[in-house]
Amino acid sequence: MAENHPSEVVEEKGEDVTVVEERERERETEKEERTLKEESNGVSEAERKSVEELKQLLRAELESEGEVWIWGVPLLKDDRSDVILLKFLRARELKVKDALAMIRNTLKWRKEFNIDALLEEDLGDDLDKVVFMHGHGREGHPVCYNVYGEFQNKELYQKAFSTEDNRTKFLRWRTQLLERSVRNLDFSPSGINTVLQVNDLKNSPGPAKRDLRIATKQALQLLQDNYPEFVAKQIFINVPWWYLAFYSIINPFLTQRTKSKFIFAGPAKSPDTLFKYISPEQVPVQYGGLSVDFCDCNPDFTLSDPVTEIPIKPTTKQTVEIAIYEKCIIVWELRVVGWEVSYNAEFKPDAKDAYTIIIQKATKMSPTDEPVLSHAFKVGELGKLLLTVDNPTLKKKRLLYRFKIKPYCD
């Protein structure tokens, strides 16, 4: 049998990797990861006191109500309830009476909105590509994608927003997805109880669409009022020039704590921004990663198969060397976001005087080519697999790859 993890050597031909840049990026990522951990689990002494005070007030208020549930958790029954109360307190800057009023309003809204019935309601699958859950962030947060460009489809847009009834149905559908997602979170004190929101603004209809603007404002208000502190980060990608004007419209309706979680990235920076919070194997192909959504195009790899990231400086060549110790079949995936590079693959046997085998001759890859290359090669002798990417541009690139060893068969 071949070893599961052949040794890898990454060699760069040309200038050395800018170590300072990479260390700075690592420091920024570590800082963001610490922030996410603190948002999920860090509880100060002041917060603990506020939770105890809120519990006393809430216990007196709910005494005649019997058992009250929220997000699948019975209030005041165990420490999961403490996590929920802390969300309301943080949303109201630890003002206990304000948090109590917020809980009261949320419980009233959930009853009026008939949340329990909504969970079982069939609202169709027309909007499944508009908002969907996919994968997890680097710290384990579930990731929710909001794809506004889907509303360029006029029929879909009309069905979602053309009338007040349609907008109400859209809001119920969005709430249903949110509620189902929230119920899958771990409300234990050490658990993950927030999600990452990724908002893709590519080809978004824009602020001129009044119906979409109204629905977005309603959804944001509903989220803030009734689902406090459920978003670890709001990541906006493919942000166009007009978004700042739109953001200025909704900005007054957001709390300072909510606004502090917003991150914006233009088209060129979107993949790298996502990779700070989500590892590439968890990011869908359409956003720069290697995860294929909605199909099983490459059954050799799953979300659990890690991806290696390598920076490639401008006008340099990068070679990944994978040592093969026994007969096997090696399969791999590789991509450079945006391409504009040349790629070749070859196998170099260890035996003296053996010829190098060209698997993929040097090929110029353009932005219109397939985003991910997949290969398989049957190895009949010891040697090295060499994957080379030549970046002739003046832009820094990022190579993503992963491989897997399968048994050799004649």
Automatic annotation (TrEMBL):
In Pfam terms, one family for this protein is GOLD_PATL1_C
Q: Which GO cellular component terms are attached?
A: cytoplasm; membrane
Show the SMART domains listed in the entry: CRAL_TRIO_N (SM01100), SEC14 (SM00516)
Q: Where is this region: Disordered?
A: 1-47
Gene3D superfamilies of this UniProt entry? CRAL-TRIO lipid binding domain
Upper classification of the source organism reads: Eukaryota, Viridiplantae, Streptophyta, Embryophyta, Tracheophyta
Know the name of this protein? Answer: Patellin-3
Sorted alphabetically, the keyword list is:
Cell cycle, Cell division, Cytoplasm, Lipid-binding, Membrane, Transport
- Subcellular location(s) per record: Cytoplasm; Membrane
Q: Could you tell me which residue ranges the GOLD domain spans?
A: 300-405
Q: Which SUPFAM superfamilies does this one have? A: CRAL/TRIO domain (SSF52087), CRAL/TRIO N-terminal domain (SSF46938)
> What processes in GO biological process is this protein linked to?
cell division
Task: Enumerate the spans annotated as CRAL-TRIO domain.
Answer: 120-289
Q: Which domain of life is it from?
A: Eukaryota
The Swiss-Prot or TrEMBL record annotates one GO molecular function as: lipid binding
List the PROSITE patterns.
CRAL_TRIO, GOLD
What is stated as this protein's family in its record? Belongs to the patellin family.
